[in-house]
């Protein structure tokens, strides 16, 4: 009887230990993702990337142009069929501005820090360099598939975003980012296609809070075309 009681008492501990051992480390998850999209060597060769696609929002079609240049420059442009500007975001590597029909707004230090990481070519490549701390907190199902949930914070503990990586493929399928106190966005990525040895997601959905879900499709991707620094000039 005594042996039976001891066995029963140790079962919860053994179960918890076994459960914990089934989860990989954050480094293992992130390294698998980097390998899945082409590997570190291939990603490091990407100096700039330009993609053009369309987004459907509230039954309206919007053209999206994204330009990224290492190490931390970016341009995001949303325009209508007639070239009408809806939104423009420019990052010169240090400063971040948002441009709409209402005018130009320079992001504050906290918002800019988040934007600078979010709009890099491959943020996970510089997590260690930037002091980002990542933790695997469990598994969740994303669109019916198991994914590792990884929380990421800046070195000072400020939240960066939460990423979800497919357990089987290693690909990043979702991340959730809190832009500010009132805006939390969920971005889902799918349909990865290889371009110059690097896998780029060609379909995505974006939703802020419980608002309208926008669906985007990439029509073309160009890598290392020599994008000029003038594209990222912040006025």
From TrEMBL:
Superkingdom of origin organism: Bacteria
Signal peptide: 1-20
Keyword annotations: Signal
Record protein name field: Outer membrane lipoprotein-sorting protein
Species of the source: Fibrisoma limi BUZ 3
